[in-house]
Amino acid sequence: MDKIYVTKPSLPPMDEYIEYVKKIWDTDILTNFGPVHEEFRKQLSEFLQTDLCMPTCNGHFALEMLIQALGVKGEVITTPFTFASTIHAIVRSGCTPVFCDIKATDCTIDPEKIEELITDKTVAILPVHVYGFPCDVEKIEKIAKKHGLKVIYDAAHAFGVEIGSKSISHYGDGSIYSFHATKAFNTIEGGCAVASDKETGIRLYQLINFGIMDEERVEYVGANAKMNEFEAAMGICNLRHFHDDVIKRKVLHDIYKEKLSHIAGVSLLNPDCKDVKRNYSYCPVIVDERIVGKTRDDVYNCLTEQGIYARKYFFPIANEFTCYREKGYKGNTPIAHSISERVLTLPLYSDLTSENVIRICDILENYLGRQDVL
Ligand code: T4K
């Protein structure tokens, strides 16, 4: 049996990519905002409904650059239920993370718990649209306005997600996406930062290229966070197929939903996202040991023995990382802790066959048993 990983990159037909590789050979421009980059940026702007978006070398640097472009320095309220990048970006930018707990329904920041963490040092809220599930953007905005805080969204998982036909990147003062190979939309490595105002957009553009203004002027302590021509070419090609990929993911997600509803001790994390266009980027499930006496790790091991490599996104939570647990960062996060011990993300990608989804569910059913659905 072939191994099945949690994800597999979407690759366009090779001919489509080669066509762009030839263009790169013709121009001799490999990076530094070349013509393919420019073409991709325009397409991205259209897709995201904004001119203020900048492709970057990855999602992590997009976040660092955005934090810097917005002048954020101080305490930043975020959640620990995320990939290492979110917290590393805050810390590497000289800010202090303050950890807010999450909602059990969708694993995004719990807005009811934000205000109690605000101090006179708080400068920003940095929520994560984890698994592509939108945060409670309206409530977060109200809190931010009331206390004069910036809002930066880590939308690494949320490319293509819209709320009421509006791109999710239009909320807050800025957002970032990841276009890493493992994401629903990839440019090999890559990402993008989106600003909500022109001034931040221009600063982002400058910061991404070392803060260089022109040949004789360097105004900001920027970095090299540029996307190169080969990555931009992959972006152009993959963008053409993104819509179809999401449809394929939804079909597979719906099979999981139906099959898992009959299996004891495991439930699909599938929040009721009203008025939301989803991207089905991950398939997180929660294992309930109390029902079948099997832990998340038991289920993980059972799948691994069958060549199915699910992942524990996100375990451990960031405030329990070796590099952070002794730092004394503020915030109690019992729900995030509890979910991180019970969550498992099952394989989901556009090339996965429905037969394999059924096989994964059958393995789970054999191991955990059936439950009656009302
Ligand atoms: N914020 C959030 C919330 C994020 O989740 C991330 C990244 C970021 C920010 C930062 O964005 P980037 O700077 O990365 O653009 C992966 C990704 O590397 C990472 O991008 C992602 N989040 C995170 C959730 O997942 P790993 O360490 O789990 O990846 P890895 O290499 O174990 O890949 C998972 C599986 O995918 C493999 O078992 C096999 C398959 N795979 C992977 C690669 C790289 C392939 O089939 N082909 C491939 O080329 O972190």
Topology:
Elements lengths: L3 E2 L8 H14 L7 H14 L4 E4 L2 H11 L5 E4 L5 H9 L3 E4 L22 E5 L10 H11 L2 E5 L7 E2 L2 E2 L6 E5 L12 E5 L2 H11 L3 E3 L2 E2 L10 H32 L5 E3 L7 E2 L5 E5 L1 H4 L3 H10 L2 E2 L24 H9 E4 L7 H15 L6
Parallel strand pairs: 1-16, 3-4, 3-5, 5-6, 6-9
Antiparallel strand pairs: 2-10, 7-8, 7-14, 9-10, 11-12, 13-15, 15-17
Ligand T4K binds next to α3 and α4.
Summed up:
With 374 residues, the chain is α/β, with parallel strands linked by helices.
Question: What descriptors fit this protein?
Answer:
374 residues; alpha/beta; globular; binds ligand T4K
Structural write-up:
The chain is of the alpha/beta class. Helices cover 37% and strands 16% of the residues. Helix 3 (59-69) runs parallel beside helix 4 and helix 3 packs across helix 6. It is globular, with a radius of gyration of 21 Å. 47% of the residues are buried. The structure holds ligand T4K.
Q: Which parts are unreliable, with pLDDT below 50 for 5 consecutive residues or more? A: none
Multimerization status: single chain
In total, how many beta strands? 17
Structural class: alpha/beta
Hetero groups in this structure are: ligand T4K
Rough outline: globular
The termini sit apart by 35 Å
How much strand content do the residues show?
A: 15-25%
Largest sheet: 7 strands, mixed
Mean pLDDT: 97
Count of alpha and pi helical runs: 11
Radius of gyration from CA coordinates: 21 Å
SSE arrangement, N to C: EHHEHEHEEHEEEEEHEEHEEEHHEHEH
* Largest beta sheet: strand ordering: 2-10-9-6-5-3-4
Helix fraction by DSSP (H/I, runs of at least 4): 25-40%
